[in-house]
Specification:
The complex is a heterodimer of chains A (244) and B (356). By secondary structure, chain A is of the alpha/beta class. Chain A is 33% helix and 33% strand. Chain A has two domains: 129 residues, Response regulator (Rossmann fold), CATH 3.40.50; 107 residues, OB fold (Dihydrolipoamide Acetyltransferase, E2P) (Beta Barrel), CATH 2.40.50. In chain B, a hairpin with a 3-residue loop joins strand 6 and strand 7. The two termini of chain B are 23 Å apart. Classes of the chains: A alpha/beta (244), B alpha+beta (356).
């Protein structure tokens, strides 16, 4: 069985390595010190289990998981993160609070073995909850090819539904993110991002003009020149948020 | 309870002199209206002494009962009532003491309305002075309470600001120690010592204590040692401190949160090696301290940054009553916080101005 440890503190990785010594069948294939390395290593090795820290440089553990198309089983480790812990509790996901001892570590391993396979669904729900944290709702982390990009929320022009994905339109082009429109409507700041249409969410700060379009509809013209459809319902919401 | 105006010597003298003047005035007035000296003296003395007693009664009453603004009519009623009593009582006494003088009874009878008016006027004045006095006393007490409360809350706030334990730092340090115990027990022991010294430092109680900058630096080094164990090669602290800066007095634990902020910001906002630069000079009678960390302009600020900065700003404001002591320069690749710490005398002046 293949294991990957993702934690930015060397000694935090070292203690996991030590506790794993009594499981010769579990082999550590790589240790990573941030989420970028983590994504690469996980795609390359397809591990059976990862140990994942939450607070890490640039992107946190949850954001790293979001970037993975196929998610391995995860045992989360964290020192103190109120928000993460609330998310774990809400979805009955096991996590290790630093510092932890061998006994507690063994329990987590046992739990993972008992429910191998069933963890995936829980993880999805967990990420949904975790992405509502204040820090994560201010940015979107996307992957373009092998590169990872962090888009601050205010840089987003608008979002567009695209099959199972959402297209994030920015100055530097558009990026796909495997989330739903409903997810973004819930997590982004509702005073800045308005669902103007079933398939569109627009950043109100980007709007320069709203024109009538066809019979009952409107269209929002953005500073960038982009055009975003506005439904009758969306028109009312936009005017309410803009106060116009 | 407000103190009576009579508790002040100055007021007591004024009170006494006034009554002597009233007494003399009455004597002369009675003489003017044709009463013999003796009768005038007896009449004036009795009238004045009874009035003095009633005045004391009014002052004491108002001491315990200060009427609301719209109840001033009660005082008027009270004065009228006392005047009535005074007239009846002094009339009775005067007949008793001076009734044998020729024509005195007739004079007394015809002068009653004048006596009543004078009595009411004097009692009214006394009541008015008392109300003004006790109101201002009460106001003084409220103000005092307010300053006391402000001072208390200021102290509590300063204490809280310094007391902010960083649980993330604490638990991660404990986790590092846990890892070191089996692989490098000596280093584990050293780190326990450093962590303890550091925690003891954050728990110091003397709030407005000013310490030498060199002492704060020692404390900073302790903190950096711990962080270096946690983050290994990634953390590269650099110090550039001028000799004159070392002896400057600064509020305890003021620079440490900036360092903490810079480390958190630097280490979580970028990947790879992180150089944190601490620079200190004395410029224009201020100790100027700059803390610089690398910064990735593409990044959103990680959660929780800013708290340290705000607490430093707030502390400097509470100590020096100045808002211009913290400056933040965000550039493309670096984030610099500059604080200017005035000489300690300015803090003392600021606190004196606040209490005055």
């Amino acid at each position: 069985m293949k294991i990957i440890i993702v934690d930015d503190e060397p000694l935090a990785r070292s203690i996991i390595r030590e506790y794993l010594q009594k499981y010769p069948e579990l082999e550590i294939v790589q240790e990573c010190s941030d989420g970028f390395e983590g994504v690469k290593a996980i795609q390359q090795h397809q591990p059976d289990l990862i140990f994942l820290d939450i607070q890490m440089p640039k992107i946190n553990g949850f954001e790293m998981l979001e970037l993975l198309d196929e998610r391995p089983a995860v045992i989360f480790t964290t020192a103190f993160d109120e928000y993460a812990i609330r998310a774990f509790e809400a979805h009955a996901i096991d996590y290790l609070l630093k510092p932890f001892n061998q006994e507690r570590f063994d329990k987590a391993i046992q739990k993972w073995r008992d429910q191998a396979g069933g963890a995936q669904k829980n993880t999805n729900e967990l990420l949904e909850t975790a992405s509502q944290s204040p820090s994560q709702s201010q940015r979107v982390v996307v992957k373009t090819g092998s590169k990872i990009k962090i888009i601050p929320a205010q840089d987003i022009f608008f979002l567009e539904a695209a099959d199972d994905y959402v297209k994030v339109h920015t100055q530097e082009g558009s990026f796909l993110k495997n989330k739903t429109m409903n997810h973004f409507e819930k997590t982004l700041d509702p005073q800045q991002f308005v669902r103007s249409h079933r398939s569109y969410i627009v950043n109100v700060q980007q709007i320069t003009r709203i024109d009538p379009y066809e019979k009952d509809n409107h269209i929002a013209i953005l500073k960038s020149g982009g055009r975003v459809p506005v439904s009758r319902n969306g028109y009312a919401k936009l005017r309410a948020v803009l106060g116009l | 309870m407000a103190s009576s105006p009579l508790s002040q010597t100055r007021f007591r003298i004024i009170f006494g002199i006034s009554w002597v003047i009233v007494l003399a005035d009455l004597v002369l007035m009675l003489k003017w209206f044709g009463q013999p000296w003796e009768a005038s003296l007896i009449d004036s003395s009795i009238s004045t002494i009874t009035l003095v007693l009633l005045s004391l009664l009014i002052m004491n009453t108002l001491r315990f009962y200060t009427p609301r603004r719209e109840r001033y009519v009660n005082i008027l009623a009270w004065c009228l009532f006392l005047m009535g009593i005074w007239l009846a009582f002094s009339h009775w006494l005067l007949i008793l003491a001076a009734g044998h003088f020729e024509g005195y009874r007739q004079f007394l009878k015809s002068s009653m309305p004048v006596r009543g008016s004078i009595g009411l006027l004097i009692l009214g004045c006394i009541a008015l002075i008392s109300v003004v006095w006790f109101n201002s006393e009460e106001q003084k007490q409220t103000d005092q309470r307010k300053t006391d409360a402000e001072k208390l809350s200021k102290e509590a706030e300063l204490f809280k600001l310094r007391q902010q334990l960083q649980p993330h730092f604490l638990f991660n340090s404990l986790n590092s120690i846990n890892a070191l115990i089996s692989i490098k027990p000596d280093e584990a022991r050293k780190m326990v010592q450093q962590l303890s010294d550091f925690l003891r430092g954050t728990m110091r109680k003397e709030e407005n204590l000013f310490i030498r900058f060199s002492d704060e630096l020692e404390y900073l080094k302790l903190y950096l040692e711990i962080e270096k164990v946690r983050f290994g090669y990634r953390l590269k602290p650099q110090m550039d401190i001028a000799e004159e800066a070392l002896s400057w007095k600064i509020p305890a634990l003021l620079v440490q949160p900036l360092m903490e902020n810079a480390i958190k910001f630097g280490l979580y906002g970028t990947t790879g090696e992180v150089t944190i630069l601490l620079r200190a000079r004395v410029i224009d009678k201020h100790l100027v301290v700059a803390v610089m960390n690398p910064f990735d302009a593409d990044m959103q600020m990680p959660e929780g940054t800013g708290f340290g900065l705000n607490s430093v700003k707030r502390r400097l404001y509470l100590l020096f009553a100045r808002n211009d002591l913290v400056e933040i320069n965000k550039e493309k690749n670096s984030f610099v916080v500059v604080i200017r710490i005035p000489a300690v005398e300015e803090a003392i002046e600021a606190s004196r101005a606040a209490t005055a």
